[in-house]
Write a structure and sequence with these properties.
Layout (H helix, E strand, L loop, with lengths): L1 H11 L24 E2 L2 E2 L1 H9 L1 H7 L4 H15 L9 H27 L7 E2 H9 L7 H5 L1 H20 L6 E2 L1 H8 L8 H12 L7 E2 H6 L15 H14 L6 E2 L1 H8 L6 H13 L9 H6 L1 H4 L18
Antiparallel strand pairs: 1-2, 3-4, 5-6
Helix pairs in contact: 1-8, 2-3, 5-9, 5-14, 8-9, 10-13
């Protein structure tokens, strides 16, 4: 049961990173499932996922510092497209976009094969539903009404609605492109509305169809027991001001669907460039706005991280290095 729930959650998850202090945006692009900021501290795991892609980031976590640096050096040589000995902002941004596209393509391919072993042109809703939610047919009425069953039921409804959004020709079947939009709606412009709707539903705890200030704050910050507003970190106080000054544009005390869309999907915001600028800023020791291999390797923990124990199966997954 838990395995099935994990699969369902993984398939239906939309990236919802904690907004940064500066950007204060939920990320539309899928750079990582990790929170970008944990309270007011930058989360390095987000950087690792954005730079490597989530699958490879997990492998690097199991490498020794020496091996991690060696493999990072190989990657740096690939990023330096013009072979001038420097990694520019543009080259780093292009690499981040490449790794995320690769991750999404591999993820879609893996799920496509799982649900479509015969490699047919289409996957029907009934086939997908049976593969993921077929176990529910054996659940009793009381099981379906308890917390676990309620979760499954809601996941099924959410997947059904997202399937409908992804099904451009409305034949209740998805081709591979449509299936990619279903799995990763944040990567498809035509799926923007469903991302906004799901985000709104996730944050809207009282289900009144809008986001209050406390729901907005509660999505990114969980106070300790007994903590009052006066005890909140400065960045949370700033978020309260952001909500009133910028998020709630019609000043009714809430964010409606349109205001949530402006928040999480601003058309002018380039997530890959923002992450590239952050990495350059953190690693550029001589402030020349470009990175040498030495500067990157000196900050290897920022780019890839590593542990000094248990190489495990990670070595086998990186034959290209």
């Amino acid at each position: 049961m838990l395995t099935t729930l994990f699969i369902a959650l993984a398939i239906t998850a939309v990236f919802a990173g904690v907004p940064s202090i500066d950007e204060t945006k939920r990320m539309m692009d899928h750079l990582s499932d990790a929170e970008h900021y944990r309270n007011e501290h930058h989360n390095k795991q987000f950087d690792h996922d954005a730079f490597l892609g989530e699958d490879q980031a997990k492998s690097f976590d199991q490498l020794s510092p020496e091996e991690s640096k060696r493999r990072l050096g190989v990657i740096v040589d690939k990023i330096d497209a013009d072979k001038d000995g420097f990694v520019s902002l543009v080259e780093l941004k292009d690499w981040i976009r490449y790794t995320q596209k690769r991750y999404i393509e591999e993820d879609v391919d893996r799920h496509w094969k799982q649900h479509n072993p015969n490699n047919d042109d289409l996957i029907t809703w009934e086939t997908y539903k049976k593969n993921v939610y077929g176990f529910m047919e054996g659940m009793s009425e009381s099981d379906l009404k308890n917390n676990e069953g309620f979760t499954y039921t809601n996941l099924l409804k959410r997947d059904r609605r997202r399937w409908h959004y992804a099904d451009s020709d409305k034949d209740d079947s998805l081709n591979r492109t449509e299936f990619g939009g279903f799995l990763h709606p944040e990567d498809h412009g035509s799926m923007r509305d469903i991302v906004v709707l799901e985000t709104l539903e996730d944050i809207d705890k009282d289900k009144d169809g809008k986001v209050s200030l406390e729901e907005y704050i509660g999505d990114m910050y969980k106070p300790d027991e007994g903590e009052t507003i006066e005890d909140e970190p400065d960045w949370v106080k700033q978020e309260r001001e952001q909500f009133a000054g910028y998020r709630d544009t019609n000043k009714d005390g809430f964010m409606d669907e349109h205001e949530v869309k402006d928040w999480i999907a601003p058309p002018e915001f380039d997530h890959a460039e923002a992450e590239a600028r952050h990495l350059v800023f953190e690693a550029d020791s001589d402030a020349d706005e470009k990175l040498t291999k030495e500067e990157i390797l000196d900050k290897y923990d920022l780019f890839v991280g590593s542990q000094a124990t248990d190489f495990g199966e990670a070595l086998a997954r990186h034959d290209e290095f």
